[in-house]
Design a protein that fits this description.
The protein has helices at 3-7, 10-20, 26-32, 37-49, 64-75, 77-93, 99-119, 122-137, 143-148, 151-169, 177-195, 199-210, and strands at residues 24-25, 53-56, 59-62. It has 214 residues and is mainly alpha-helical.
Length: 214
């Protein structure tokens, strides 16, 4: 299984959320997640090979450093789609024949730079760890919510939540270089999402404008 498939797998998600709380051996993982030992071992092995978990001295834990790039790849769904639109007008002006391909290639390069900077930002690293730790240890919710929650769902929600959080971040003082850089990176992410419209989004915006609501 690829990392993407594992993150959307129910049993692998149960294992991940269990290990967010702390390291565990395979037997405990199987018992806590109500899995057969063979299935638990197979998933644990696949998660290690996918760069989600690490194994040491007979126990398993989340390899946060390797998981962060996986998280960023999955968390930037809207951003990744929105970025090419930023460059299309430039390549149209240049008379580029394959302007869409050129814009997509440029967006991919720019997005890779953003991911590298975010992955190297210690504050962002801590935010991601805290996000999952708080989710599994402090957030009250219906029992079936956590049972059905996939890691991929939690990652997707990060990008949507950014739309609500960024305006609040603007009011906070940023006293460190890491905090300033993180705010700048997230602000650009926010602007790209805000400026992008799918056809349905454009239709909704036009409908509100037609009735003088925006």
């Amino acid at each position: 299984m690829s990392a993407d498939t594992l993150l959307s797998n129910r049993n692998a998600s149960h294992i991940f959320f269990l290990l967010v709380r702390g390291r565990a051996k395979a037997d405990r993982v199987a018992k806590s997640c109500k899995l057969k030992k063979a299935e638990a071992n197979k998933l644990l092995d696949r998660m290690v090979r996918a760069g989600i978990l690490e194994q040491a001295r007979g126990s398993y834990g989340i390899d946060w450093e390797l998981f962060l790039p996986v998280f960023l790849r999955e968390a930037m769904n809207i951003y990744a789609v929105a970025m090419p639109w930023k460059f299309i007008p430039k390549y149209l002006e240049k008379g580029e024949e394959d302007f869409i391909d050129a814009a997509c290639a440029r967006a991919e390069r720019e997005l890779a730079k953003v991911k590298v900077k975010l992955a190297a930002n210690d504050l962002f690293f801590k935010v991601v760890q805290s996000y999952f730790t708080i989710l599994v240890t402090e957030m009250a919710g219906p029992q079936d919510y956590m049972e059905d929650l996939r890691v991929s769902d939690a990652i997707d929600e990060f990008e949507y939540a950014l739309l609500k959080i960024l305006p609040k971040m603007r009011r906070q003082k940023r006293n460190t270089k890491q905090a300033k850089e993180l705010f700048r990176l997230l602000s650009d992410w926010y602007r790209q999402i805000q400026g992008y419209d799918t056809p349905t989004g454009s239709a909704l915006r036009a409908a509100f404008m037609e009735h003088g609501l925006v």
